[in-house]
Amino acid sequence: MQLATVVHRRFRSDSGLEFVYAANSAAILELDPLAAAAVDAFAAPGGRDDAAWLATTADPVAAEATLHDLIDLGVIRPHGEGPAPRAGLPPMPFPISTLVLNVTNKCNLSCTYCYEYGADRLTAGSGSQGSGKARMDEHTARQSIDFLLRNSGDRPQVSVTFFGGETLLNFPAIRAATEYAVAAAAQHRKRMHFALTTNATLLTDEVIDFLTLHRFGITVSIDGVPEDHDRHRVFRSGEGSFATIAPRIRALVAKNRERKGRSIGARVTLTSGAAPVRESYAFLTGELGFDEVGFAPVTAGLGRDYALGEPGYAKLLREFADLARDYTAAALRGESHGFANLGDLLRELHQGVQKAHPCGAGLGLLGVSTEGELGLCHRFVESKDHALGTVAAGVDQAARTAFLAKAHVDQKPDCANCFARPLCAGGCYHEAHVRYGDAAHANLHYCEWIRGFTALGLDCYAQIRAGNPRFLARFETA
Ligand code: SF4
Ligand code: SF4
Fold it and tell me: Would the pLDDT of 128 be above 90?
């Protein structure tokens, strides 16, 4: 019989252990030499005849047993046989676990690449398409909490993330929503988590005290070393914001450590010409005290001088590999490392995550506009084309289900033969909307980047699994 491997990636640890990552099951299997030979043989274009292959092996009985094991594990199957059908949508309405509240549309910075002010924004702001209200009022903030608790089913734990604009421009709504949520969650016997993204310019002592008291997960938008940060993250006057935020961040980190709060993360937007990520990482963790650093390539349209372009992405992948080496070395010593992109990827690989949708948007997560309109996530809340109801009237379940059905990875034929599909599933809806005018389109412009980074993660996973498997136990909790 003609047999062939499923979509997969083969990789090995530095110490010579062999692995395969099978896209249909998202399983990472360690292969003995015979299994490795079988996978490689049946990966040939068009597959291979099993009897012909068995005849080439030194021990056909052992080889046949190995082949059956690989068939049972779903790594090899009859050539031309379609993949087993994947699960469609989960039972709807799917309970909501995270609500992202856009508490303000306004920002006190004028970052050159910001989607809020750039051509990539989905709406025109205060105009025909957007709600236009600059700040969420406290009533809408509390209504949003009620909405979350009403729509979270039997989930024991739910999260509220505050977002902007510059989120802290509307601290009164954050305070009102948080205090209300603490009391309401207790009544519903649920745990409530809070998170916030900020540019750190408005982190006063009062704000820091409040955020650390309520154990907020805090992400600061900061672009690495001062020169890189001040190139794009500027006040309206054009003056860079680094000198303003550095002492505020140090005060936040100190208070958070004193209260043993959750880790504080830096979120770096990577633009052309920025310092290598290893240098940015060392600065942000060493000089400013961040626990974690996540890097995101700028999502600006083509042709802008700070856009990365293909050579920029290739260079970035090499820089990620440099930082990944540091992460792996730390893991082999049993120590934590704050390279958040890699930590998140290793967690998903270890848990065998198999995504039908790229992210939780529209599924377990919804965004809320300043006026209480619901959207797929914070980036869609003012887009009338993606409206999903309001916190007052409830979710438009028909629109939600229709979008999720359309955005399922099985509706993206380009992704069918991609080994990164279990984790990427076509990529961010917002980017897809900006690039292709269709949020459910696969983000084919960054496949090489996604596949390159996933392959890097698999390599690191192999090194850690071979050298210090106990390190991976930390990824077994949600
Ligand atoms: S968008 Fe590209 S990288 Fe992502 S799953 Fe589809 S083909 Fe793979
Ligand atoms: S659609 Fe994009 S921006 Fe929105 S939650 Fe998903 S990945 Fe994030």
Answer: no
Beta bridge partners of 229: none
Residues with CB under 6 A from ligand 1: 414-415, 418, 420-421, 424, 426-427, 442-444, 447, 450-451
Instruction: Round to whole Å and give the CA distance between 103 and 344.
Output: 27
Backbone angles phi, psi at 163, to 5 degrees: -145, 165
pLDDT score of 134: 94
Instruction: Please name which ligand lies nearest the alpha carbon of 413.
Output: 1
Please provide residue 305's backbone torsions phi and psi, each rounded to the nearest 5 degrees.
Answer: -70, -20
Between β-strands 389-390 and 394-395, what pairing exists: parallel, antiparallel or unpaired?
antiparallel
84: tokens are: 């087993």
Q: Could you read off the pLDDT of 407-418 as tens digits, one per residue?
A: 999 999 999 999
Measure the CA–CA gap between 252 and 218, rounded to whole angstroms: 10
Query: Which atom of ligand 1 is found nearest the CA of 443?
Result: 1
Task: Classify the C-alpha dihedral 412-416-420-423 as positive or negative.
Answer: positive
- Nearest residue (by CA) to ligand 1, atom 5, is 421
CA of 32 to the centre of ligand 2 (A): 39
Q: How far is residue 282's CA from residue 333's CA, in Å, rounded to a whole number?
A: 19
429 C-beta closer than 6 A to ligand 2: yes
Residue positions counted in the chain = 478
Element (H, E) at 145: helix 138-150
* Mean local confidence (pLDDT), 150-170: 97
Tens digit of each residue's pLDDT (9 = 90 or more) over 461-472 = 999 999 999 999
Which ligand ends up closest to the CA of 454? Answer: 1
pLDDT of residue 310: 75
Instruction: With 0.90 as the threshold, say if the pTM is over it.
Output: yes
Q: Which amino acid is at 111?
A: C
Q: May I ask the CATH class of domain 85-478? A: alpha beta
